[in-house]
Amino acid sequence: MILPEGAERTQVEDKQQFVMAVPYRQPLPAYPAGVTAVAAQLPVCVEFVVGEDGAAHSPRLLEGVPDCVAASQPGITPFVDAALAAVAQWQFFGAGMCTWQREEAECSDGRAHVTPLAIRLSYRFRFSAGTPGQPVAVEAL
Fold it and tell me: What dihedral angle (degrees, nearest 10) is formed by the CA atoms of 60, 24, 35, 49?
């Protein structure tokens, strides 16, 4: 995992294991209807926080990342809006810090204590020209 500069870090101690958030509802944005393509492939990068409740909070356009559009690029607003609206609906089994007493296996069999953690994630959506109304490709950054 690549953390941005200034990101808060959580220290993993002995007898602890980080448990990553796992999506269970992840509708993808569709290509905006009635919009003319501004490029053959339009990569829109979005970041958001997966809260302790597993919901996606505060989605926003992620800029300054290679192969991602800039907010100033003409015609991208409908694509950014589609990506942000989709991400706002995402649901996860939230991330956490698992602390076990005797063995790490306690984290997988439910005997350990898990402290919920909020984490920030980033995804790249690739809108392809000629696919109005169709889902887009998505990849984690």
Answer: 0
